[in-house]
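Per reviewer request, we include the raw input and output of the structure prediction for the construct analysed in the revised manuscript.
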Amino acid sequence: MERWRLRLMPYQFILEYRPGKDELNPADFMSRHPHEKPKRDNAAEAYVAFVSQHAVPKSMSLDEVRESTRGSRILQNVMIAIQTGRWSSDPDLIKFVRFRHEYSIYDGVMLRDHCLVIAESLHNRVVDIAHQTHQGNVKTKQLIREKFWFPGIDKMVEEAVRACIQCQASNPGSNKREPICPTPLPPGPWSQISLDFAGPFPSGQCLLVAMDEYSRFPEVEIIFSTFVNTVIPRLRSIFARHGYPTVVKTDNGPPFQGRDFVDFAEICGYKHRRITPLWPEANGCVERFMGTLNMFIRASVAGNRDRKAELHMYYRCTDVLQSYTSFPSSGFSI
């Protein structure tokens, strides 16, 4: 059926069913009017010759395929088995025997359907030709199967793509992140805290968040700028309530880069540790809380509710909001 489909491709035709009783369809006309001297039909041989001529890419000649086939012991044994119909138990022939009804031989080359069967000496060259444009596994296999076939195409293509430096460098899926290592739990409460900012919000305010990494207890302060002169007094207020921590972890923001913050750390006696630049996952404890806090603020604004009262109910702890008592009379405006 595949061969007849290829033979009829140059023609434009429409298939219509007409019953035999129709006067416009004299049933079985060819068998009732046979030719006196039927000629031998060489359509199959012509088809095989056409495929063998057009299945070779421009970068490879048919003579090379024929010469490599002649020099391949495996393909020669396969061709003998095709002609005789006797397939031995040779391990090299087992790879071919399952497709034994699809082979054909013409002028020293071997075909499987419309594809040339390539000797093992040309396998790597065929894969290199198909992979010249550095397509992926699927596309490279499709390009090869359009004209060639040999056992183990999938495995060879996958190994070639995996070993291709250009493909690995340009493939975004190859730039995988290292597995996340959990941060060890601090030895006790308020021994290690993380600092970060939320905002700025449309009102111009920001939120300074200090979170204890042991108990996940947050302290939230409203500030009107992120300058170090504004951040340090808020931290003094937080440390006055809970004591000085051992380690303070921050990102690489401007308030934490200057000499003033270094002097403040020396006075308070804690170690200031900055995370890896452009890697917020290293400060994941407080970063995760920022998502929850921002979601709560958006819900409060959308519902036009009292943010102070809502925050009291949200955390179920009035100590978290002790700093809010010193806000201006205008209220918590986000």
